[in-house]
Design a protein that fits this description.
heterodimer; A: mainly alpha; MgtE N-terminal fold; CBS-domain; Tetracycline Repressor, domain 2; three-stranded mixed beta sheet; B: 453 residues; mainly alpha; 3 domains; 22 helices; 6 strands
Chain lengths: 454, 453
């Protein structure tokens, strides 16, 4: 079993160049649909359609579901209507919703017309849920049986309605379609044919999520409860569909990537880095950089107020980058620890007091260690007074920056903002300003420098 | 009724009240009404002295269920208060992969004593799991799975699975094997249910097997499961014989842990084995001080670089005002670039071989960013200084941003080439290196343009 996808790309390009149809078919037969989709997205537009059309109809639909929506739209435009109808009607409902919501109004109307009536109704209903809700993400291909059915009848019903899209869980609903339980298909295997489905019902409550809930919350529930499928319930308590674990894996990955980028003060990037144009990357990066320049200009302004101090004692400048950078580094550590702990749910905003106490302890110890280290350098560069100054400044600045780095994500959460906005560059820049202020104020005090005019 | 994670704090409160007042009925009711995962979460917020009482209330099976969902540090803590027999009973109720994870965290003598008290076959299985390297696929697999033979009929296979379904962790995906255990193919339980009872397993088997060798990294297992949308990934030995399975629910935990590790490394924090809430002050200090001290050394280089230009500073003190702006901007742009690369490498969006293409793109992006930032600082320069100073710092800004971006982009690739974790290219490391180089560029350019030499 070879997993090197790049090799597949090279191999398929070579087969296309040689126009070796049999070889190509053989290679494709051997590949999993996910790999075919991945390789297709690496090919040029014409090759993509060429290879795609060569797939047997059943696999076509599966591969189509794994393409990114931009490629799906591109392929649909090149596909005859009858084939497009087939592809769309074979898609999982959640994949179909994802595709439809990325279409323009006009395209949406055109493609909806290709779908069977029931599918149109279902698609419109799902698109009706607000963006960023479980409703957009759920799949309504579910099998539901009733509690008073016999096991035999339930199994016959499952056989009739199951297809490869349906999952490994069978749902039990009452006459009003209120969810009673989610039962793994294997339990039906164990039951006696004449027993009622009721006998399989577990004791505890069934875990479910509201259709209007944020998908990230659904992801967390699936992770927390080790579920394969999470039932989705409408506002009226009616069972609507499921969110599955494979959707959640993608969602959590996207969520972590967004957090990562925010921590690096990059705006949220909807495309992959591979496909993002330089212009897009510029736009996503320049905003924060300019904001931070403004912060740093403030730092520059503070320094300019201490011009005289610098002129009196140039050696002060020697320690400036050292001390403010150390504060920034410590602040970056504590903000990152907090942001990640909030994202995984291990820390909530209520824990702040306890964490704050601990952070003061940690940061003062860090500051003392580093202060001691630089004071030796201070002794060598400028004598006892300077050593004392840099040691005290270092301790204060490291402690202050750490506490700011730790509190900022919590404050942002309190104001319902994303804690990851407390990015490393933002914390570093804030620490710079505080650092410069503390450093020069201490220097003026220790060396009794008079600042003219200020 | 919907159980929602946010309710668990109040569950902790309720449990605490019930435990403190000794209300056994209420306690039993609470314990019965909540999923094991929620009880495990609530337990972490209860005072230690209540843990024992709560566990006694749970009953054997449920206690094991709750225990399996506790964080490792709580698991070990609880075990230390039990004698070996009690501990073995608890461990015996766990699934093998969970049991191996707990035993791994214990001190050797303690783990051995518990192992000794377990039934013979459990001992064998656990010892074989613990023999695989840490963070390998073999370590996290469970050896309880269902297999069928290709020449069986569907009815025979179903009968067999009916017997096995109590033991196997999942029978949603079933593997067909030779008598020696070599993997031949896989099929879904529902496909068996849908097929004619007299059909042969062979006829409905899928042969596109995705598997992983026991010695491979658990992260690779997670990647395969999520890429192929698998419920179950079979773990095999070097001859293709099936040893165990990894299920999709293990993957979410692996992904979360690996992502957290990356996050922490990006901020120059060493790997934290505990949750932030439970980590002690000393532990946090130890995990943070290492990189901070290394970076102090790098920063002392910045100071040294400045001393070379003391004459320039004394001539034009205004240069010092703009120094933090320029070097911080370079560091920020570098942090952005390295963050983008590290994450894209981790998700598989880009490969190490893409460095050249990414480099070209980064040059374009960095140059545009450099121009934008140079314009911004030129305006500030005119405000706080003179036109000549403004020109000098604008040019320095452009060069430093270029350097920072390219350095931040290259370092993760370089680390990958050297088989090191790209996330070691942390934002603080990038910022500190850019500081040193930035100072030299800044004063170099200023000295040349303002003719201070």
């Amino acid at each position: 079993m070879e997993h090197n996808l790049e090799q597949y790309v090279v191999e398929i390009q070579e087969l296309l160049r040689l126009d070796d149809r049999d070889g190509l078919n053989e290679t494709l037969d051997f590949m999993r649909v996910q790999d075919i989709a991945w390789v297709l997205m690496e090919l040029s537009g014409d090759d993509l359609a060429g290879v795609f059309n060569r797939l047997p109809p059943g696999r076509k639909a599966d591969v189509f579901g794994y393409l990114d929506s931009e490629y799906q739209i591109g392929l649909l435009a090149k596909t005859p209507r009858a084939d497009a109808r087939f592809l769309l009607s074979e898609m999982d409902t959640d994949d179909l919703t994802a595709l439809l919501q990325s279409l323009s109004e006009e395209q949406l109307r055109e493609y909806l017309r290709l779908l069977p009536f029931r599918a149109i109704r279902r698609a419109l209903k799902q698109l009706h849920y607000p963006e960023n809700t479980v409703g957009r993400l759920m799949s309504s291909d579910v099998i539901a049986v009733e509690p008073d059915w016999s096991m035999k009848r339930a199994l016959a019903f499952i056989r009739r309605n199951a297809d490869e899209h349906s999952n490994n869980v069978i749902f039990v609903v009452d006459a009003d379609r209120h969810l009673l339980a989610a039962i793994p298909i294997r339990h039906f295997l164990r039951g006696r044919p004449d027993d009622a489905v009721e006998t399989l019902l577990p004791l505890g409550a069934t875990i479910s999520v509201s259709v209007l809930e944020n998908p990230v919350e659904a992801a967390r529930m699936i992770q927390h409860y080790d579920l394969e499928t999470l039932p989705v319930i409408g506002e009226d308590g009616v069972f609507l569909g499921v969110v599955t674990v494979d959707d959640v894996v993608d969602l959590l990955e996207a969520e972590s990537t967004e957090d990562f980028h925010k921590m690096g003060s990059v705006g949220s990037l909807t495309l992959s880095l591979q496909n993002a144009s330089p212009l897009l990357l510029f736009r996503k990066r320049v905003g924060w950089l300019l904001v931070l320049v403004a912060f740093n200009a403030l730092g520059g302004y503070v320094i300019s107020r201490y011009e005289q101090a610098i002129e009196t004692l140039v050696v002060l400048v020697f320690f400036l980058p050292l001390i403010i950078a150390s504060g920034g580094n410590a602040g970056a550590q504590s903000s990152t620890l907090m942001v990640r702990a909030i994202a995984t749910g291990e820390v909530t905003a209520r824990d702040w007091l306890k964490l704050w106490g601990k952070e003061i302890g940690v940061s003062v110890s860090l500051g003392l260690t580093m202060g001691l280290a630089v004071s030796l350098v201070g002794l060598w560069r400028g004598g006892l007074e300077l050593a004392f100054l840099v040691a005290v400044a270092m301790t204060l600045i490291v402690a202050a920056a750490s506490v700011v780095g730790m509190l900022l994500p919590i404050i942002l959460t309190r104001f319902k903002l994303d804690p990851a906005t407390a990015s490393v560059p933002l914390v570093t820049s804030l620490a710079d300003i505080f650092g410069i202020l503390i450093y020069f104020a201490l220097a003026v005090a220790v060396f009794n420098i008079t600042i003219g005019g200020a | 009724m919907n159980a929602i994670i946010e309710e668990s704090p109040s569950l902790a409160q309720e449990l605490r009240t019930a435990l403190e007042r000794g209300e056994d009925d209420l306690l039993s009711k609470l314990v019965a009404a909540h999923p094991a995962q929620d009880i495990a979460l609530a337990l972490g917020e209860l005072p230690r002295q209540h843990w024992h009482t709560l566990f006694e209330r749970l009953g054997h099976e449920r206690a094991a269920e709750v225990y399996a969902h506790l964080p490792t540090e709580h698991q070990t803590e609880l075990l230390q208060n039990l004698d070996h027999d009690q501990a073995s009973r608890l461990i015996g109720e766990l699934s093998y992969d969970d049991a191996a994870a707990v035993l791994d965290e214990l001190q050797d003598e303690h783990a051995e004593a518990i192992l000794d008290a377990l039934p013979e076959d459990d001992q064998q299985v656990l010892n074989s799991l613990l023999a695989y390297p840490e963070e390998s696929a073999g370590r996290i697999m469970t050896p309880e799975f269902a297999t069928v033979q290709p020449e069986w009929t569907v009815a025979e296979a179903l009968d067999h699975l009916r017997e096995r379904s109590e033991i196997a962790e999942t029978v949603n995906t079933i593997f067909a094997v030779t008598p020696k255990g070599q993997l031949l193919g896989w099929l879904r339980l529902k496909e068996l249910l849908l097929s004619r009872p007299t059909a042969r397993v062979q006829a409905i088997l899928h042969t596109d097997i995705v598997s992983i060798e026991a010695h491979e990294d658990q992260e690779e297992a997670a990647r395969r499961i999520s890429h192929y949308d698998l419920d179950v990934l079979p773990v095999v030995d070097e001859w293709g014989a099936i040893l165990g399975i990894i299920t999709v629910d293990d993957v979410l935990d692996i992904i979360r842990d690996e992502t957290t590790e990356d996050f922490h490394r990006m901020a120059a924090v060493a790997d934290l084995p505990l949750s932030l809430r439970d980590a002690s002050l000393k532990m946090l200090y130890r995990k943070r001080i290492g990189w901070l001290v290394i970076l102090v050394v790098v920063n002392i280089l910045s100071g040294t670089a400045i001393t070379f230009f003391e004459a320039s500073i004394e001539a034009v003190v205004a240069l010092v005002f703009f120094l933090p702006m320029v070097i911080a901007s370079g560091g920020n742009a570098g942090a952005q670039a390295s963050t983008l690369m590290v994450r894209a490498l981790a998700t598989g969006d880009i490969q190490a071989s893409d460095w050249f293409r990414m480099g070209l793109k980064e040059i374009l992006v960095a140059a545009s960013l450099g121009v934008a930032l140079a314009a911004a600082i030129w305006l500030t320069g005119n405000w706080l200084g003179t036109l000549q100073v403004a020109n000098a710092i604008a040019i320095a800004m452009f060069l430093v941003v270029m350097f920072g971006s390219l350095f931040g982009m290259t370092l993760p690739f370089l680390l990958t080439r050297l088989k090191l974790d790209p996330a070691t290219a942390s934002a603080p490391l990038i910022t500190s290196v850019v500081d040193v180089v930035g100072i030299v560029i800044y004063f170099g350019v200023a000295t040349a343009i303002l003719r201070l030499g």
